[in-house]
Amino acid sequence: MAGTWTSEQVLALSPDAGSTKRGKSLANVAKWQLLGHAGQAVWGECKGSGKKPYRTQIDLSEPAFRCSCPSRKFPCKHALGLFLLLVEQLEAFGNDPPPDWVTEWLEKRAQTANRQQIKHKKAAADPAAQAKRAEKRAAKIEAGLEDLTQWLADIIRQGLAAWPNQPYSFWDQAAARLVDAQAPGLARRVRSLGSIPHSGQGWPERMLTALGQLHLLVESYGRLDSLTPAMQAEVRSQIGWPQTQDDLRLRVEKADLLVDCVADTWQILGKVVIEEDKLQMQRTWLWGSENQKSALVLNFAHGRQPLDVSLIPGSSFSGNLIFYPGTGLQRAFIDLRENTTAQVPPPTGNTIAAAIGHYAHSLSQNPWLERFPLTLAQVWPLPREDSWWLRDAARKVLPIAPGFQRGWELLALSGGYPLTVFGEWNGSTFLPLSLWSGQQFHPLGD
After folding, report:
1. Which residues form the SWIM-type domain (predicted)?
2. Is 379 exposed, middle or buried (0-12, 13-18, 19+ CB in 10 A)?
3. Which residue, of 42, 157, 176, 187, has the greatest Cβ tally within 10 A?
4. Is residue 346 part of a domain?
5. Which residue(s) pair with 271 in the sheet?
6. DSSP letter at 70?
7. Does 169 share its domain with 193?
8. What are 416-429's pLDDT values in tens digits?
9. Shared-domain flag, residues 134 and 235
10. What's the chain's average pLDDT?
11. Is the dihedral of CA 43, 48, 54, 59 positive or negative?
């Protein structure tokens, strides 16, 4: 198990460059008084500045970490150093049974997991209270949509020339009214409009597309009764209706046909982290080995809160995913995870034409699709002046996102040979997140 992890995967867990540097320095046997490894558990005692060593432990099943040091970073430098040492010098670890402080931690984790399962099973909302809350929210959203409809008519009447001169506060104020109307999904779309007039050549087309999608969403919400149940769920999700994980678990137990619980071996293909103001959003893309189904797992952190770093690109796990109801590509959350392994073979990729065909099909199911996962097989990186492209054997090309800074690394890893590349397609450009050179995996995302 330990031998399947790579140093690259371990360092991908690091919260910052400083932790990476210090973690590498601690990947030294001389700095550890005790090193042990048994099954999924790894532990060590690292010499510190005080009399007592820092006790560090890892549960490889996720992986999860714990350390007695005062650091607020997760994982800390000691955990990174211990993990790197395990990968690079497995022979330095003893095979004795775990000490009490390791066993207690593992038992506590198991007890916490059991309590959560019991809580999920007991969770039951009061149907009458739930219906009353939904009714109040619906009234607020309808009022917000009326205001948004008038606002859209006003800015269209002003014309394209007026939009670049509007300050960001103009768009933020409209978005804030939608937040008050409990429609955060619409608010996010309105707020994003402010940057489009300053996005360079072709911005009018992008602006009109975004406004068209916004108008379509407003009109669709007004005609919910005429839509299919799956499309109703998608529209509600795009508007910003809340869907808690406990609610979805209950719907799975009640055999709700709109909520799927899928058991599979899930490959973690790539992830990207976006930061806006003080909020971090992490998108992690999974692929089911047997059901051939994509899944998007979202994770949020505010301020200094840590993101979930346990989903490591290039690894896989056996478990259950519960999918949020909707159409096209669907978001999911992990309901059960076990048997994490650190090496996954490259998934079956597509030609560029076939991949774009899959995207077009999903777009026909969900016109508000913002990004789509593509796995491209047998492609070569191609530099063109100030931009990068991917080309396949049929000589079809796909533009790489302008913000991608690792084009030369792509070219070096290819060595002139074709690659399998995974990434996000937004309808205009492709953002590479990982690649396989032969059977060797390389992460490219954050």
Report:
1. 54-87
2. buried
3. 42
4. no
5. 284
6. -
7. yes
8. 899 999 999 999 99
9. yes
10. 89
11. negative
Distance between CA 205 and CA 124 in Å, rounded?
Answer: 47
Q: Which residues have a Cβ under 8 Å from the Cβ of 385 and sit 6 or more positions away?
A: none
Q: Which of 250, 253, 244, 248 is nearest to 123 (CA)?
A: 250
Best CA proximity match to 296, nearest among 321, 279, 315: 321
162 and 91 in a single domain? The answer is no
Q: Residue 244 domain-assigned?
A: no
Q: Which amino acid is present at 334?
A: I
Q: Residue 351 — φ and ψ, nearest 5°?
A: -70, 165
Q: Name, in order, each residue with C-beta under 8 angstroms of 63's C-beta and a sequence gap of 6 or more.
A: 13, 83, 310, 312, 340
- Within a domain: residue 347? no
Work out how many domains the chain is built from and give that number: 4
Measured between alpha carbons, how far is 414 from 397 in angstroms, rounded to an integer?
Answer: 16
CATH number (domain holding residue 260):
2.40.50
Query: Is 0.85 topped by the overall pTM?
Result: no
Full residue range of the structural domain in which residue 356 is found:
352-443
Domain stops at, among 341, 375, 406: 341
Residue indicated by tokens 């006790």: 55
Block residue for tokens 């040091």 = 69
Q: Report in angstroms the alpha-carbon separations of 424 from 107, 269, 432.
A: 39, 11, 7
Q: Is the peptide bond before 63 cis (omega within 30 degrees of 0)?
A: yes
Render pLDDT for 139-192 as a digit per residue (tens, 0 to 9).
999 999 999 999 999 999 988 899 999 999 999 999 999 999 999 999 999 999
pLDDT along the chain (446 residues), means of 10: 71 86 92 90 88 90 88 90 91 87 89 67 60 84 94 92 92 94 93 91 92 95 93 93 86 88 94 83 93 92 77 90 88 88 80 96 92 95 92 95 92 92 94 90 81
Taking only the tens place, the pLDDT of each residue in 370-391 is: 999 999 999 999 998 889 999 9
Tokens 């103001």, located at residue: 277
What is residue 318's DSSP assignment? Answer: E
